[in-house]
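Hello forum,

I keep getting stuck at the same step: I have a sequence, I want structure tokens, and every attempt I make locally crashes halfway through. Rather than fight my setup again tonight, could one of you with a working pipeline run this one for me? It's a single chain of 213 residues.
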Amino acid sequence: MKQIRFWFDVISPYAWLAFDRLPQVLEGHSHAVEYRPLLLGAVLQHWGQRGPAEIAPKRDWTYRQIAWLARQQGTPLAPPAQHPFNPLALQRLALACCPAGGAPNRRVVEALFRHVWCSGGADANEPQRLAALAAELQPPRYPASAEVKDELKLSTQAAIARGVFGVPAFELEGRVFWGLDALPMLAAALAGDPFFDGPWDEAAAPRPAVTRG
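Reply #2:
Ran it on my machine without issues. Output:
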């Protein structure tokens, strides 16, 4: 059985679409999925990137594309009232729902994603909604505890150290697959596609390039 690590931040609609699609894509492969929360903002800052919603025309395209993709794959989608928003409380809640050093299960992660992306236009950080979600999940640890805060920081740092630069990201045998559209590639790797025996490394060989000062 092969282990897949799914790096996510509920702020990303593509992460929600990938999460919902993942079981169908991996059907027939022997695997186990570990769900690992991170803070996308910190990852983008580390690599010197901006989020899609921070660039006006890219934001418009993103919202249009996710609406189309959701219809294509049959995933429910009703975006939150504000986006982007601060996902800190929800990412901490994910970790609070598991023992120290553990990872949240799929039920917890699905509840978090649905809270954001199946909200019917509600505010993802509205206090009463957050309280209701916590009551539903009944986390054994306090989400705002120093322990949980530190775990989320460490999880984000671990993702960066592994080469994660965005979400959704899937880690398999030391390789990182990025984005919803990488799911078929991930399935091919699980199936033993020969591309991953050599061409994978060759394709990313360094090439002389112009760099911006």
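The radius of gyration is 18 Å. If your local run keeps crashing, start a new thread with the error log.
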